[in-house]
C-alpha cells in the first residue's frame, strides 16, 4: 500500500471532526442561537437559492468537512447532492447524521434558522427528509484534475466550496489550479458558490494549528475569471465574530459565479 503523502497525514492526524463542529458550529447552550457568521452565510445561500434560478439535477459540495450547513437551502433545489471531502473522518461524521445515530451532531438550530429565513415554506423535518433522500458521500481532492477521482459524475449544475480552498491549497498556483479543477465538474452556465476567508493564515481546532493560504479580493476575482467563470456577485463582510485567537481571519467573502 502506498504511504500517505505528508500533506494527507498532517491533515488526517490533526483534523478532529467532532471538535471542529463543537468549536465552529456549537450554538449558545441557553438560547440555541447560531453565531453571526453562520447567519450571514445561511442568509446568503437562502437568497441565492430562493429565486429558483439555480437548480437542477445535481450539486456537489467540495470540502464539506463534517458539515451540513451549506446545503440547507440547496436541498430544495437539486435532485442529488454530493457532499465530498478529503478526509474520511469528516464523511463518517455526516454519515452518522444521515443514519440518525444518537451521537450525531445536532443541526436542528441551523435547520430552524434556515426555515425561518425562508419564510417557513418548509419545516426542519421536511428538510431532514429531503437531505437524507438526496445526499451521497464521496471522497475528493480538489488538487486533482478530476477532484472526484476515481469516480466521475455528469457535469453538475452547481458546486459549493466553503472554507475549503484556503485549507487545501498551499500556494497561489495550487489555488488557481483548484478553481480550474472545480470548473471541470460544472456544466456551461452552471454555478459555483465560494465562501472563504481573506487575509487568514491559520485556524485552530483545539491545540491543532491548521495553516491557511492568505488571499485577497483581487486574487480571488482574477483567478475565478481565469478559470472560466463570470462573476455574478462578490460580497465581503468585515465583522466576522470568530475569536481572533482561534482563527486569524480578517474578512469572509461570498462569491457567486457562472461558468461561461
Ligand atoms: C476549514 S474545513 C471547512 C469545512 C466546511 N466546508 C465548513 O465550511 O465548515 C476545510 C475542509 O477542507 C477539506 N480539505 C482539505 N484539503 C482538501 C483537498 N485537497 N480537497 C478537498 N477538500 C480538502 C478538509 O478535509 C476540511 O474538511
Outline:
One of its GO terms (molecular function) is N-methyltransferase activity. By secondary structure, the protein is of the alpha/beta class.
Topology:
Layout: H1 6-14, H2 17-25, H3 36-50, E1 56-62, E2 78-85, H4 88-98, H5 108-117, H6 124-134, E3 135-139, E4 156-162, H7 165-168, H8 172-183, E5 186-198, E6 202-205, E7 208-211, H9 217-226, E8 229-237, E9 251-259
Parallel strand pairs: 1-2, 1-4, 2-3, 4-5
Antiparallel strand pairs: 5-9, 6-7, 8-9
Query: Structural class of the helix and strand makeup?
Result: alpha/beta
In CATH's first tier, which class applies? Alpha Beta
Largest sheet: 7 strands, mixed
Bound molecules: S-adenosylmethionine
Keywords: Methyltransferase, S-adenosyl-L-methionine, Transferase
GO molecular function: N-methyltransferase activity; S-adenosylmethionine-dependent methyltransferase activity
GO cellular component, one term: cytosol
Binding site for S-adenosyl-L-methionine: 20, 25, 63-64, 85, 90, 141-142
List the main descriptive attributes of the protein structure presented here.
260 residues; 9 strands; alpha/beta; 25% strand; disordered N terminus; Rossmann fold; two-stranded antiparallel ribbon; seven-stranded mixed sheet; binds S-adenosylmethionine
Describe, in plain words, how this protein is organized in 3D:
The chain has 260 residues and is α/β, with parallel strands linked by helices. It has a single domain, classed as Rossmann fold (3-Layer(aba) Sandwich), CATH 3.40.50.150. Helix content is 35%, strand content 25%. It has 9 helices and 9 strands. The strands form 2 sheets. Strands 3-2-1-4-5-9-8 form a 7-stranded mixed beta sheet, sandwiched between helices. β6 and β7 form a beta hairpin. It is globular. It starts with 5 loop residues before the first helix and ends with a strand. The N terminus is likely disordered. Keywords: Methyltransferase, S-adenosyl-L-methionine, Transferase.
Amino acid at each position: 500500500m502506498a504511504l500517505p503523502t505528508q500533506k494527507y497525514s498532517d491533515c488526517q492526524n490533526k483534523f478532529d471532526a467532532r471538535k471542529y463542529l463543537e468549536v465552529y458550529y456549537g450554538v449558545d447552550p441557553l438560547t440555541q442561537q447560531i453565531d453571526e457568521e453562520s447567519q450571514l452565510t445561511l442568509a446568503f445561500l437562502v437568497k441565492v437559492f430562493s429565486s429558483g434560478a439555480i437548480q437542477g439535477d445535481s450539486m456537489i459540495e467540495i470540502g464539506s468537512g463534517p458539515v451540513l450547513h451549506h446545503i440547507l437551502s440547496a436541498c430544495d433545489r437539486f435532485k442529488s447532492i454530493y457532499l465530498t471531502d478529503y478526509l474520511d473522518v469528516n464523511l463518517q461524521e455526516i454519515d452518522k447524521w444521515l443514519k440518525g445515530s444518537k451521537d450525531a451532531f445536532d443541526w436542528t438550530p441551523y435547520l430552524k434558522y434556515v426555515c425561518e429565513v425562508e419564510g417557513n415554506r418548509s419545516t426542519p423535518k421536511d428538510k431532514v427528509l429531503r437531505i437524507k433522500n438526496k445526499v451521497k458521500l464521496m471522497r475528493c481532492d480538489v488538487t486533482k484534475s478530476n477532484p472526484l477521482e476515481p469516480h466521475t459524475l455528469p457535469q453538475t449544475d452547481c458546486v459549493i466550496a466553503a472554507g475549503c480552498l484556503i485549507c487545501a491549497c498551499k500556494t497561489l498556483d495550487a489555488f488557481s489550479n483548484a478553481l480550474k479543477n472545480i470548473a471541470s465538474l460544472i456544466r456551461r452556465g452552471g454555478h459555483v458558490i465560494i465562501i472563504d476567508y481573506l487575509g487568514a493564515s491559520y485556524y485552530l481546532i483545539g491545540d491543532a494549528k491548521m495553516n491557511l493560504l492568505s488571499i485577497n479580493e483581487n486574487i480571488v476575482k482574477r483567478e475565478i475569471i481565469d478559470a472560466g467563470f463570470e462573476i455574478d456577485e462578490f460580497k465581503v463582510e468585515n465583522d466576522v465574530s470568530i475569536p481572533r485567537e482561534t482563527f486569524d481571519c480578517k474578512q469572509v467573502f461570498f462569491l457567486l459565479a457562472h461558468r461561461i
